[in-house]
Amino acid sequence: MARTCDPSEIAPDLIRGKTTAIIGFGSQGHAHALNLRDSGVTVVVGLHEASRSRERAEALGFEVRSVADATSTADYVALLTPDVPMAEIFIRDVEPHLRPGAAVVFAHGFNVVYGRIVAREGIDVVLVSPKGPGPGLRAEYEAGRGLPAFVAVNRDASGNALRRALAYAWGIGCTRNLVLETTFRDETECDLFGEQAVLCGGISALVQAGFDTLVEAGYSPEVAYFEVLHETRLIVELLVAGGLIYLHEKISETAEWGDLVAGQRVIGDASRTAMRAVLDEIRSGAFARDWVAENEAGLPRLRAHRLAERDLPIEQVGAEIRRRMLGRERPPD
Hints:
The protein has 333 residues and is an alpha/beta fold. Helix content is 56%, strand content 12%.
C-alpha cells in the first residue's frame, strides 16, 4: 500500500530560497514554475534557443536561460519536457552541468523506469507527480488548495532525498492535499495503464462506440452526442467526489439498474483480457519501445490518427453543438 506522507516530514526550508531550474515550460512546467515562485523558491527556466515558450516565460517575469546554464545554477532540476525528447536533453544539456549534490525531479517516471535516463552518482533522483494537468495544479494553488501527488525516490545520494521531494511537493502546493509515497515503477506503469485502458483510450473508444451504435440504429446524432459524450462530465464529477457508492446514490434507480445489468456485458471478459495485454506491454517495455520508435520516425501514426479524428461524425456533430451552446467549437487553449 502506498504510504501517506506525514506533515512532520515536510521541511519547506529545504527548497525555499534555493534555486530550481524548470526545464520545459509547457502545461506542467508553466504551473510548477509559477507555484514554486509564489512559494518563495528562486526559479530559472531552461529552454532551447528556438523554444516557442521563451516569450511566454519572459512575459511572466522569469529569467530564461539555456538548459545547460539553468542547470548549472540549480539546487533542484525539474525535467518537465515531453517524455521521449527528455532523454536526449538530459544527456546533452543537463547531465554535464549538474551541480554536486543537486536533486533531479521528474513528474513522471518513464525515462528512469525504462533506463533512458541514468543520473551520475552523487545526485538525488526523485519523483513528484501531481495528479492532474498543469492548469489544474495552478488553479488549485491559487485557490489556496492543492492537487494530490505521488512522491518517490530512485536514488538517495544525500540521505535526504525523500524530504527534498516533499519540499518540492510543498513548493507546488501538493502538500496542502494528500501526498503518497510510491515507487517510480508503480507510478509509471499505473499511469500508462490508466491513460491507455481507462482515461484516454478506454473512455474515448467507449464514447465513440456508443455514439456509432446509436446513430447506426437510426437515432439523431445530436441526441446521441448528448447521451454518450456530453453527460460524461457529470458522471466523472460524481465518481471523483465520492466513488462508486456515491455515484449510485446520486443517479436514478433506473440508471443504477442499467449499470448492474449492462456494465459487465460491455466491459466483459474480452475487455479484461485486453486490459491485461495492455498492462503486459507496459511492464515489459514494449509500449515504451514502440512509442520511442514512433517519435524517431516523426510520429507518422499519431499524425495520421489526428487527421482522421477530425472527420469523425461525433467530432463534427460535437463542434456544431458546442458552437450553438457556448458560441465556440472548442475550449480556449
